[in-house]
Amino acid sequence: MRAAAVPAYSALLTLLILAPLLAPGHLLLRDAVSTPRSYLTDSALGLGDAAPRAVPQDAALAVLSTVADGGLVVKAVLLLALWAAGIGAAALARRLLNAPLYAQLVAVTVAIWNPYVAERLLQGHWSLLTGYAALPWTVLAALRLRDRHVTGRARFAAWAALTLCLAAAGLTPTGALLAGVLALLTVGPRRIPGTALLWLGTAAPWLVAAALSGSAGEHSDPAGIAAFAARAEPGLGTLGALAGLGGIWNADAVPVTRTGPLALIGTALLLLLVLCGLRRLLGAGLRDETVLRRTLAGVALAAIALPALGATAFGLDLGEDLVTAIPGAGLLRDTQKYVALAVPAYTLAAAAGAVVVARRAPAAIAALLIALLTLPLADLAFGASGALRPVRYPAGWARAAATIDGAGHPGDIAVLPGGMFRRFPWSGEPPVLDPAPRLLPADVLQTGELPVRGGTVTGEGRRAARVERALLAGAPAAEIAGSGVGWILVEHRTPGPLGASAGTLAQLGAPVYTDADLTLYRVPEPAAIDRPDPNARRIAGFAHLLWAALLVGGAAATAALHPKRVTRTRTSPASRSSH
Fold first, then answer.
1. 0.85 cut: is pTM over it?
2. Contact present, 34 and 71 (Cβ < 8 Å)
3. What H or E segment, with its residue span, contains residue 577?
4. What Å distances lie between residue 579 and 7, 112, 149, 237, 286, CA to CA?
5. Which DSSP string corresponds to 454-503?
6. Do the beta carbons of residue 422 and residue 496 sit within 8 Å?
7. pLDDT digits (tens, 9 = 90+) for 190-215
8. Distance CA 204, CA 571 (A)
9. pLDDT per residue over 261-311, tens digit each?
């Protein structure tokens, strides 16, 4: 029963948060777009006009949705990620601190029930949480690799575990950076070259896509630095919000409890517990364990201080200079994402703090600590009080997709109204990314322009922006066709600019499909535009296959060579400390 306590408790917290997603339907909330079926388009491979920010995520869903509903895949990944994050935090506390069970449960609570998880869920960053969940397991794999007494099959198992962590985190570029940074800082100098090679393999899909599509040479809009900077929360300021694991740029993607005094109370309670355990976290012990604990503490300090610095006038100026001078630096503009790197140290310090304050009646005091950690963020329960809930797509989307798929008509798809976000009556109040790029079997033009904090951050989709301007100006249909557009999809019952597009649509004759939600027009004789070279698609496909092979191979090898199945000579702590 003791062995099952941590997995069971992690599952309980995960289900308390994600219970609404167990209902039928698909996750559609801000940046989260899950669909029954998606397609392996150029954009899914990262070869479109926009930067490959959802690679290899989109390609993986396109492949998996041929055999299972894509919405179920997303739900399964999200459930597994949160559950694994909790179990990993407990395992890390047990391994680096020899924490008792009650302290491990406190570590699980901090890992799963915190503002970072809440805000990223509400922003729709479900796939980022796979990278978040991989962090404690990455440290555990690094620790085994540092152990000179781990040899033979056990050492191969440790490399397999690290491969699995890096590949799972590599579902998104940011997740790959999170796990890659932590791995390189914890494996030790002799293993850095091998770890770097592994990381390159697991990050290959988006690195290769950026190189092949040309987005690696694109400079991001400097306006994105201020727009995506970390945000102060009530009574905390920017530094306090980040130290409390909050501070996301979008004030609308936060639980209600983070908009008032409870934000200050919750942050104070968390930091007090962390401070109680800090001495033990930094204290001396076995060499490798001590080095890793202190490394994680340093990483946590940097993960909080640097985003806070990035939100100052000096930091904003520096960030704008970086994205202007260095192509691809826009990947770092949402600095609060990197607060995830502080969580392993926080969970360890919280577990150590629980041991310090619970010397008498540990079970009762641990229960009290768990209550104090969760109650200030009580509205994270049940999908952040219902905000995280599945939706059902109107049947017209599937019919429009089938019309395009069966027509054999070339050309990309332009969408109306203008803009990348929608507010459908069936999708709820928050804005959602237009689901058309993932629901339709051809490339959908996306400008990449993001409305943030009352302004607009320019995207990389120059052709899409040119077509959108032409449509809103009522340009001749021939001009639209000359941009390689073969279809125009008008999405109804959502706000957004239509301009003079009725003049363009009138030239196209009767729509090929229409209902209350969608109207689809065919644009005759679309021009043949420069497409990614077939070799580019093959190379991008190979990079995705490499990532998938490392993910599956790492998982299979880790399962086959689990430490319980691998016998090795154990040495005494005194013997180990001599190394």
1. yes
2. yes
3. helix 573-577
4. 33, 35, 10, 45, 9
5. TEEE--S-HHHHHHHHHHHTT--HHHHHTTTEEEEEEEPSS----TTHHH
6. yes
7. 999 999 999 999 999 999 999 998 66
8. 39
9. 999 999 999 999 999 999 999 987 778 899 999 999 999 999 999 999 999
